[in-house]
Specification:
Layout: E1 2-6, E2 10-13, H1 14-21, E3 24-27, E4 32-35, E5 40-41, H2 44-47, E6 59-62, H3 64-71, H4 75-86, E7 94-96, H5 104-113, E8 117-119, H6 124-138, E9 142-152, E10 155-160, H7 167-176, E11 180-192, E12 195-199, E13 207-210, E14 214-217, H8 218-222, E15 230-232, E16 235-241, E17 256-260, E18 263-272, H9 278-293, H10 298-306
Parallel strand pairs: 5-6, 6-7, 7-8, 10-16, 16-18
Antiparallel strand pairs: 1-9, 2-4, 3-8, 9-10, 9-11, 11-12, 12-15, 13-14, 17-18
Helix pairs in contact: 4-5, 7-9
Amino acid sequence: MINNIILPQETVMLDKFASELNFEMLYAGRGMISLSSISVDRPGLRLAGFFSYFDTKRILVIGLTEHEYLHSCSSEERKDKIKKLFGCGEIPCIVFSRDLPVFPEFMECAREAYTPVFRSSKMTTSVIADLFVYLSRLLAPTATVHGVLLDVLGVGIMLTGKSGVGKSETAVELIKRGHRLVADDSVLIRKIENELVGTAPDKIRYFMELRGIGMINVKNMYGSGAIMNEKEIEFIMEMRPWENGKAYDRLGDQNDFEEILGVKIPKLLIPVSPGRNLAILIEVAARNQRLKSMGYDATQELIERTIGR
């Protein structure tokens, strides 16, 4: 089911990086940023001369403490300390917080190393927090899965199954009933903290393939209320052709899971046969899953009523 797993390493254009974090770009440097670490560093110890355990893959944030320390140094001392900092390796970028003025020596060394420099009006702790959230999402472990992801009654449901089983057709029926499409055919999944968040690859976002009809754009056809950019995956429903003689779960007491990127997601097998209204079944499953997450289990209540506690 999982097609591939992408290692956490991304290259971001400077204008996009600055726009998403509301940073002022002071120097473009290399024109892009290569990111591979979610950690952010304040280089106070490095400026003081301690370079052990210095990871040059981290974004550096210059706060009031570092700025005041450099301000207390003479111009020659300041340049020497900054030059040693840049000489350790290719730093992704440097961010000044609190709208602090940038020392001429700093800009000179940044230009020599082609290191991008940004500035933010926010406090240092807020800048670091924003960067951590941004990097955690950008560099989250990622997998691509063949399926359809929808928001059904607030529950993120991913439909899986072999090609031609009817996933997209079922999704269209659900969209007509007021639910929202996140991704069709290919679901890009990121593991953020201990949750799986799914979205569509940019090139096929909002598009859906229907055999016999071709490609449709769900946003253009049904409106912006019919789509959603991303959704946490809470439930997997695998669609399989009905097999005569096969014993299917009738009580709902068979707890099955599927593991993606180390996270276990509840999974339900849905037999597909002519006459079964799959859209309604999926709505019922979404409601039932929501009730279970709130602590109510209809199967357990039935057992208690018939057999006793």
